[in-house]
Design a protein that fits this description.
It is found in: Cell membrane. By secondary structure, the protein is an all-alpha fold. 80% of the residues lie in helices and 0% in strands.
């Protein structure tokens, strides 16, 4: 018994579980993601969603290509079925999440869309309850329910308007974005495929789709600061953000890392309020419930994994 206990810490370190590197990668992702809504808001004020998305996917594809080239020598071959499954996970997680999120940004107040899109941790909690065997399912479920109550308060009280007074497309897109990110966060930790191998093809698919979208919209290519900001959204929040988050999940599995990731809506909401975005008291109460529930879910999952 003693011998097994002495071997466990070194095994955990070799597997990456509990590694400080996971928290470092997660913190890097959160720092980049926190700027996404603010920079996106400024670009959407003068450019269509299609163009902002094209710039993002171009910047992300460049980052993933560089990482892929740097790590290609160490990559092990994989069969066609595994490769196709990995690419599908990447397309849903990257293209689905980001396109739907920016449709939401353009269709409703950004500060509200951002909070709704970050309900993905609560969706992960719901999946754990349904598919897994959480130690405290009632507590986990109650926390998730409170989070979704907070979402309803954000939507209904964001501008003192009746429920769903804004664009139904925006609300559906924000929830769709959260669903895609929840799926990605669950699936990517279970894949042996290196992050850059599934993210690069996904980004290239995004480039192709948004290029066609831009042609349809007749969008003009931006110049100067707007071009740089668009490429930053791709290279930073989308490119390095997704890469860092994927690495963190593969190293640690989602417990302590999840707690760090749930700080994103706090930081991004603070940045948006500093830029002039406002919420009513009702929506603020909803935001507190959303953010508090996300953090509580992360702590519960972390404690459950430590107990196991």
């Amino acid at each position: 018994m003693v011998g097994n206990g002495n071997r466990a810490p070194s095994r955990r370190f070799r597997d990456g579980s509990g590694s400080p590197s996971a928290l470092v990668f997660a913190a890097g992702a959160v720092a980049l993601w926190s700027t996404n809504a603010l920079v996106g808001k400024s670009l959407l004020a003068s450019h269509p969603v299609s163009l902002v998305q094209l710039l993002q996917f171009c910047g992300a594809a460049l980052v993933f290509a560089v990482i892929h080239l740097a790590s290609r020598k160490n990559a092990a071959p994989e069969n066609a079925a595994t490769g196709a499954r990995s690419i599908a996970v990447g397309i849903i997680g990257l293209v689905g999440t980001m396109v739907l999120q920016y449709i939401a940004f353009a269709s409703m107040p950004v500060i509200e869309a951002n909070l709704v899109a970050y309900t993905w941790p609560l969706m992960v909690a719901a999946a754990v309850i349904v598919l897994g065997k959480p130690q405290r399912p009632v507590l986990l479920g109650s926390t998730a329910v409170l989070g979704f109550v907070g979402v309803a308060l954000v939507i209904s009280g964001g501008r003192g308007q009746p429920f769903l007074q804004g664009s139904i497309v925006g609300y559906l897109a924000a929830f769709g974005s959260a669903l895609c990110m929840a799926f990605y966060s669950i699936a990517v930790a279970r894949l042996a495929t290196p992050s850059e191998r599934l993210l690069l093809p996904s980004a290239l698919v995004g480039v192709g789709l948004t290029l066609l979208w831009c042609v349809h919209d007749g969008a003009a290519w931006p110049a100067g600061a707007d071009l740089l900001l668009g490429l930053y959204l791709g290279a930073g929040p989308m490119g390095l953000g997704y890469y860092f988050w994927s690495r963190a999940l593969k190293l640690e599995g989602g417990g302590k890392v999840a707690v760090v990731a749930y700080l994103t809506p706090i930081a991004s909401t603070l940045l948006l309020t500093m830029s002039g975005e406002t919420l009513t008291l009702t929506a603020i109460a909803g935001a507190v419930l959303v953010i508090g529930s996300c953090i509580a879910v992360g702590i519960e999952r972390s404690e459950a994994e430590n107990h196991a």
